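Q: I have 400 residues here and want to know how they pack in 3D. Can you give me a structure?
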Amino acid sequence: MVNQEPIPMFFSFNDKSSLLFLFFVHGLIFFVLLLIKGLRDDHKPSLWLGMFTILSVLYIMPFMLGYANWYSRNPYRDILFYVPFQQLLILPPVIYFYLNSLLDRDFRFIKIHYLHFLPGLVYLIYSLVVFLVDQVILQEYFFYEDGRDKDFLFEYQAAGFFSLLIYLVLSLRIYKKYQAVTFNSFSHADSLSFRWAKHFLIALLVLVILRGLFFILNPEWDAFGRKFWYYFLFGAVLYYVSMAGYMSSIRSLTALGGLDRLRDIGQDSELPASVEVPIETEVPLPDDLEFWKEKIEKLIVEERYFENPELSVFDLAQKLETYPKKISQTINLAFEMNFNDYINQFRVKAVIDKIEHKKDLNLTLLGIALECGFNSKSTFNRAFKRYTGANPKEYFGKKE
């Protein structure tokens, strides 16, 4: 029997490489799923999240291959050194534009937005120059004479960290603006607050904190043995973001159905085409503030408009033949609260009234809340505690 030499393993599976390999495969699968969904449904958030996913896959790839011993053998080593896996200056703006497209259905990527990707493009050009000089022109190591992968230079890693920090702040501002607009325009703003966007931002904040800690504890980013736990945690975040983001993208096609007609209420903008109103663009002045305050409250109370679980400023504007801006600004100035809180206070009062006067006894407390315009138990509990200072169980327990 002839002894054959063992064929060298193409990928050395061990505890570290195998764990990162699982995240790698998961990321590739969800990149394809998000890409298909984005193209099929013309759903821009899915395309942006798909880009985030593939960039994250590339981000962990060199360490996965490093733990699989690819950097210790040729020809793999020479090839890997010249591939710019970690696009630290492209990933942050992708995150920012994902949040923009996710929270604003009217968002459009225009030419000036390409400037956000200019630093990343410069690094790609630099990587190409390094490859051409070392492998094509000189055919010997010049840039890589020190044997260190340029992706892991401290200066580049630090620039990527600060870029991520800056774009995280910008993304938080977008989310806060979105919240302000929805709570000032919709009575069911809680269901439009898009918890996924909040969870996504929390996940990114965790990554920023982790990177900051590792910069302090171990600034040598090419030290494979001492960076495993960071990349493992990054892979875990990628696993969560790609899967939860994909599921969220399915729901968001209908969850934000009312926001396609939403405009910044602080600007002079037209109503939806279905609403015919007189041309009027001035803000409420002190001499007509009481007039509009009375009209709005009369409509809400006497016609029980608050019982509509999806009531918006657009609905009131159409009924009162004025602009949404007029409605929202009147409520802000006259009642010193946003539209969401203003409507929910009437719903809470209606629930208390029904319970105290023993109306609709055939319904549960949640059933009564739904009858009064709330669209979920969590929204009801939050609004009830905000208005009374106690949750429903505590409040009605004291009444007994």
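Q: Anything worth noting?
A: The chain has two domains: 15-261, 286-399. The chain has 16 helices and no strands.
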